[in-house]
Amino acid sequence: MSVKKIPLRQCIGCGEMKSKKEMIRVIKTAEGEILLDATGRKNGRGAYLCPSMECFKKAVKGRGLERSFKMAIPREVYETLEKEMEEIDRQE
After folding, report:
1. Measured distance CA(89)–CA(80) in Å, rounded
2. Where would I find the beta strands (DSSP E) of 20-90?
3. Which residues pair with 14 in a beta bridge?
4. What is the mean pLDDT of residues 12-26?
5. Which of 4, 35, 88, 89 has its Cα between 20 and 30 A from that of 49?
6. Angle in degrees, CA 66, 68, 74, rounded to 5
7. Edge-to-edge, what's the strand order for the sheet holding 45-49?
């Protein structure tokens, strides 16, 4: 019997490798919209973050999202993502 491989992804904030299920996916859609993807199944270019505000702040400071999506990201997008991350932080 073969062992099932667990997909690993790197956090754009802290740089740690973790399983895909432990992380939050941020996507850039074909229209250029940037959203949090809670299901992990939406279409678009994805970047992964640990579910903590600390990692989100590191990603903002280190421009991790801008590097992943190869584009400048407006301040309003960061503010929206921050509110969504706070919601996730409260649920856990």
Report:
1. 14
2. 24-28, 34-37, 45-49
3. none
4. 93
5. 4
6. 25
7. 34-37, 24-28, 45-49
For each of the domains in the chain, give its residue range(s) and CATH number, in order of start. Answer: 8-91 (3.30.1230.10)
The one-character DSSP state at 74 is -
Provide the total of helices (H) and of strands (E) in the chain, helices listed first. 3, 5
Residue 90: per-residue pLDDT: 75
Phi/psi for 79 (5° steps) reads: -65, -40
What are the two backbone dihedrals, phi and then psi, of residue 42, each rounded to the nearest 5 degrees? -70, 155
Q: Which amino acid is at 1?
A: M
Q: Report CA-CA distances (Å) from 66 to 35, 46, 56.
A: 13, 12, 13
Here the tokens at position 42 are 């939406």
